[in-house]
Amino acid sequence: MRLRSIFTLSAMIVLAAASARADDFYKGKTVRVIVGGSAGGGFDIYTRAMARHMGKHIPGSPTLVVENMTGAGTLIAAKYLHSSAKPDGLSFGMFNGALILSGALGNKSVDFDMRELEFLGVPVQDSTVCALRKESGVTNMDQWFASRTPMKLGGLSPGNSTSDVARILMAALNLPVQLVEGYKGTNEIRLAADAGELHGACWAWETLKVAWSNAIPAGEVNVVLQVTAKKIPDLPSVPMALDLAKTEESRQLLKAGAIDPAAIVRVYVTTPRIPKDRLQILRNAFAQTLTDPEFIAEAKRATLDINPLGGDEVKKIVDDLFKLTPAMRGKLAAILAPK
Q1: pTM of structure
Q2: What is the pLDDT of residues 95-123, one digit of tens each?
Q3: Is 22 within 8 Å of 15 (Cβ atoms)?
Q4: Neighbours of 63 (CB within 10 A)
Q5: Which domains does the chain carry?
């Protein structure tokens, strides 16, 4: 019994020493926060708001510096965090979590295992909507289904939700869509739509309502479809894609290809092989930031929604995406693969 007590005490001392070393590690350090999206876009807005508050929740109060690393629908940032950033706890960041589904489906451009990343969480689970400029001539779904002119929707690239949702809608609902890809971020998509290059796009209501905060109330932009599991309270009269689907397979495609991945679109990760004590520090700081009264007040002023998931919850969703049936993986891969 005495020997067991000695071992227990020794283990406690080792753990306490490791925790103390982790706490001291961040003092005077700079933590890089990599954003896969462009400056001014939805990913950037959330990240910069969080970075202004997260440092004080990390022992040692390090400086957080946000860096935009755009390209390939945020894949460049994802791969950097997986394969290039040092696993020392001084780098974390976010990319579009739709890439995780792309990796689960065997997309060769995602040439690394997303499951090896360490997940910190998401600040808000996305509620995807499709919005069209009034110049498109389409203000509701009846007009869209009947349109002889495909709606030009902006996208970043295959594997990004802006592109993937559009492809899923074409397949599941047979909507007339012309997908125009290659934009660096949702801010560029918005600017292109405002300039008349696009009719609109599909992305998260949480940032779309901010990007078009004046245009939507003015009737210059109309939200015509919700690609969600349940109705958004702000949009009670806007129809849901699930209700418009005519077959069970179409509903499954919408759920697995668009709705479920939306929960982890704004996924924050750090590197594989990070020391476990530093991972826990970052996870704790991430969670504490989302309940910080000062951050909540800033988010409210910027109309940023908060509906978080923790790192463990995100990991479960990721693991489930890699467990899709072969039949569903095949269908989704055929729809989402670049043509």
Answers
A1: 0.75
A2: 999 899 989 998 888 999 999 999 999 99
A3: no
A4: 12
A5: 2-125+263-336 (3.40.190.150), 128-261 (3.40.190.10)
